[in-house]
């Protein structure tokens, strides 16, 4: 597993990426500066610079609060702050190790995601 930091303003949140091909592909993009926006009052989403390699990944995933995922059909990052239904094309990348209150904002906001030291 790979530890990452999600930096929102002056707050740093810790998360872990799974030991999977798609999570390693995501880690290869880091560091990333993204703008997260709200989607369906359930998740924060941002476009990635490219789609991730999902070869060998399950066809669907049922996300829970704190999950970091990739929605393959759109090629975006999706961070869930509420649980959601099983979704075809959704691939888990990892999860937050701690509360993610800094991500619960009404408007779009900048984040930096980087590998932890």
From TrEMBL:
<dbReference type="InterPro" id="IPR041183">
    <property type="entry name" value="Cyclophilin-like"/>
</dbReference>
<protein>
    <recommendedName>
        <fullName>Cyclophilin-like domain-containing protein</fullName>
    </recommendedName>
</protein>
<dbReference type="InterPro" id="IPR029000">
    <property type="entry name" value="Cyclophilin-like_dom_sf"/>
</dbReference>
<feature type="domain" description="Cyclophilin-like">
    <location>
        <begin position="7"/>
        <end position="114"/>
    </location>
</feature>
<dbReference type="Pfam" id="PF18050">
    <property type="entry name" value="Cyclophil_like2"/>
</dbReference>
């Amino acid at each position: 597993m790979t530890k990452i930091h999600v930096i929102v303003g002056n707050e740093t949140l810790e998360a872990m990426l799974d030991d999977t091909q798609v999570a390693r592909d995501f880690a290869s993009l880091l560091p990333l500066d993204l703008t997260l926006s709200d989607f369906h009052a359930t998740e924060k989403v941002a476009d990635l610079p490219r789609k991730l390699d999902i070869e060998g990944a399950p066809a669907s995933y049922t996300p829970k609060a704190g999950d970091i995922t990739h929605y393959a059909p759109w090629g975006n990052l999706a961070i869930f702050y509420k649980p959601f239904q099983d979704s075809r094309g959704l691939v888990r990348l990892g999860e937050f190790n701690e509360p993610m209150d800094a991500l619960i904002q009404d408007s779009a906001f900048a984040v930096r995601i980087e590998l932890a030291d």
